[in-house]
């Protein structure tokens, strides 16, 4: 605790003359190596679009299970999302491949059609579809989800993995569908 206070004081003093950085915590998204891979057939294994992937036989039941009660609108007595996670897939972006810490994922981005800048989702699908991870941005509040199937548990650091994927996608352009 004393070390944290000392670092905080030093950072406050450093702001007067220069920027202050604090090293990322081990296992954080900033420490996970991530990159966007060149497009290949693996990105299209579930379909050519986000909506096709969501309706594929392999994912059709897994995606609602990933979001659980948040899949349906809160007005129906479920979850914490007013409109439900399903609406965040109205406008799909491109399907891409990303690798995070040596593991490959299909990355699907989508958003609420009339609010792409503030209400969006990043879905990661592990090879074989046994793990699904997601970050859903509902305004300034991100929600993280992880689902495992076929005897494969979701990773304990799912939020760090999704954030690393988002950082990699943003490094090559806008990660989400355009507002138009």
Order of helices and strands: HEHHEEEEEH
Look at the helices and sheets and give the structural class: alpha+beta
Rg, Å, rounded:
18 Å
**Which whole number gives the mean pLDDT?**
84
Number of strand segments: 6
Count of all domains? 2
User: Helix share of residues?
Assistant: 10-25%
Strand order of the largest sheet: 1-2-3-4-5-6
> Looking at CATH, which topology of the largest domain would you report?
Inhibitor of vertebrate lysozyme, Ivy
Question: Largest sheet, described in full?
Answer: 6 strands, antiparallel
Description:
This protein has helices at 2-15, 50-55, 62-67, 158-171; strands at 34-36, 91-100, 103-111, 119-126, 131-138, 141-148. The chain is of the alpha+beta class. It folds into two domains: 1-25, no CATH class; 32-171, Inhibitor of vertebrate lysozyme, Ivy (3-Layer(aba) Sandwich). It has a six-stranded antiparallel beta sheet with strand order 1-2-3-4-5-6. It starts with a helix and ends in a 9-residue tail after the last helix.
Topology at a glance:
Layout: H1 2-15, E1 34-36, H2 50-55, H3 62-67, E2 91-100, E3 103-111, E4 119-126, E5 131-138, E6 141-148, H4 158-171
Antiparallel strand pairs: 1-2, 2-3, 3-4, 4-5, 5-6
What's the short version?
With 180 residues, the protein is of the alpha+beta class. It has four helices and six strands; from the N terminus they run H-E-H-H-E-E-E-E-E-H. It is globular and about 40 Å long.
Keywords:
globular, Inhibitor of vertebrate lysozyme, Ivy, single chain, six-stranded antiparallel sheet, 2 domains, alpha+beta, 180 residues, 22% helix
């Amino acid at each position: 605790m004393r070390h944290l206070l000392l670092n905080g004081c030093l950072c406050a003093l450093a702001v007067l003359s220069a920027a202050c950085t604090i090293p990322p915590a081990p296992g954080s998204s900033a420490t996970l190596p991530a990159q966007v891979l060149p497009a290949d057939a693996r990105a299209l294994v579930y379909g050519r679009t986000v909506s096709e992937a969501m309706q594929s036989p392999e994912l059709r039941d897994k995606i609602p299970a990933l979001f659980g009660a948040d899949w349906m609108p809160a007005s129906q007595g479920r979850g914490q999302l007013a409109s439900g996670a399903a609406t965040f897939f109205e406008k799909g972006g491109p399907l891409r491949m990303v690798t995070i810490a040596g593991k490959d994922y299909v990355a699907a981005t989508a958003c609420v059609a009339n609010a792409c800048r503030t209400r969006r989702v990043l879905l990661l699908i592990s090879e074989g579809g046994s793990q699904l991870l997601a970050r859903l941005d509902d305004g300034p509040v991100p929600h993280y989800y992880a689902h495992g199937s076929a005897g494969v548990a979701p990773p304990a650091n799912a939020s760090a993995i999704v954030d690393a994927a988002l950082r990699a996608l943003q490094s090559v352009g806008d990660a989400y569908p355009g507002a138009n």
